[in-house]
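Lecture notes, unit on binding sites. The following record was shown on slide 14. It pairs a sequence with flavin-adenine dinucleotide.
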Amino acid sequence: MKKFDVVVVGKGNAALCAALSARDQGVSVAMLEAANVEESGGNSRFAGGVMRFAYSSVEDLQQITDIPDDEAKNTDWDSNTTDEFYDDLYRVTSFRTDPNLSETLITKSHEGMVWLRTQGAKFVPNYGAQSAIVNGKRKFFGRFPLTVNGGGAGLVEDLTRTAEKKGVEIFYETRATSLLYDGKHVGGVRAKHKGEPVEFHASAVVLACGGFEANPEWRTRYLGPGWELAKVRGTRHNLGEGLKMALEIGACPYGNWSGRHAVSWERHAPEFGVVERSHDPYRHSYPLSIMINAEGRRFVDEGQDFYNYTYAKYGAEVLKQTGQYAYQVFDAKVRPLLKKEYGGRNVTKFVANTLEELADKLEGVDAPTFLKTVREYNAAVKQNVPFNHAVRDGRCAVGIEPVKSNWANTLDMPPFEAYGVTCGITFTFGGVRINHETGQVLDLGYEPIPGLYAAGEMVGGIFYFNYPAGTGLVSGLVFGRVAGNGAAAAVKLS
Ligand SMILES: Cc1cc2nc3c(=O)[nH]c(=O)nc-3n(C[C@H](O)[C@H](O)[C@H](O)COP(=O)(O)OP(=O)(O)OC[C@H]3O[C@@H](n4cnc5c(N)ncnc54)[C@H](O)[C@@H]3O)c2cc1C
């Protein structure tokens, strides 16, 4: 048996933010991580590292990272005011996001980023992926001009170092299995360390151990038939165990339990993410493509919005197609604009000098229908509207089903390229209900369960149907801090 003031389950971004916040209040903190050291860090470790926080000026960004004054002045840094952040989050979640949780997320996002810097995290402008030169000036788009240095892996490494330095004890290969609960208070967790049972007693427990995205049985049960076939973009350790433990003692389920973040992903990617090559399977340049299925037909509006606002819902559309695959088709005009992963390793790709040749090469695609789809699409492109990939350019293809709302270019300049994709699941939206001010988990009567807190992917009620890119890490940051501070405050009162 081991005893701490606070036990945090998990070692991703949310757990680290909770542990650091609690530790800074002077309480003793243990972190339990199911994975071994090499595999630790959860989905956070796989994250690209973009973070969506509220800011209205470059000075706000300069509080988070050093930006020389001339660079600050000569760049259009875009903006993400609290109002813009609300608009985006409410729009993509079809106005279902919980008002209290979303207000906390948005209004505490900037101060969270500044705090994260004090904990050793480093940020850099995201020049490569989120900016372009427009009329001679660099312009950011998509509302997140900063990214974590070294991506999610860099973030986890930096925060782990700080946690160790501050005396947080981390127990690897220690999988929490159930909560110690006397019917009123949570007093710790039961865990298994390398197969041996061990109990961690604590005045407060923070569950920050992810959703159920890596569990094919739960995916099928809650997301629906076919979801067991999705590839997992991140860790194999998020099996829904934290949710199970909490529900077992009467926590209130909350949010979009059939919802998930899922993207177009390399068709032959492995079952789970590979941290050293976590970016290889990304296929986020589809707004410049037409996506076609086995029947040779388009099935989504590829250019409905920047990928930041559609990628998380389009994975599900790919999963619905025959054989759970599709092809993203480009021509030479847009090839230089594709993200670098398209030129990387382990890519399912076909290249041809004519569309007929490409149609013959595309495994499992109805060639005559594909050629007809391209002919109809080419004829529908509004060529009098100028193309500009840095704004929603309104260059559309209409009179066809589905329309393409932006960035429509005719497919007519060889070589033509087609990239095979399937569905990659990132995380699940269903979770438990928490108090937005303390992070405490609520019971079925909406009363707080003494001693139990939750953060990160485990919090239900924030995301419904869709997700604005860069919000997962910020949600873990904000609610990790809320839960860590809430747990430490409860320890001090006990
Ligand atoms: C490929 C990829 C790219 C992404 N890119 C971005 C991005 O650029 N920006 C962004 O904001 N978001 C991104 N995300 C989403 C983001 O990573 C997650 O939303 C976020 O990291 C979740 O943080 P978390 O701490 O809640 O969970 P996780 O980081 O997944 O941590 C969960 C932890 O719990 C542990 N665990 C699980 N079960 C147990 C148990 N029973 N006992 C003990 N430990 C357990 C796991 O091992 C892990 O350490 C990306 C995700 C993926 C997969």
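Take-home: The mean pLDDT is 96.
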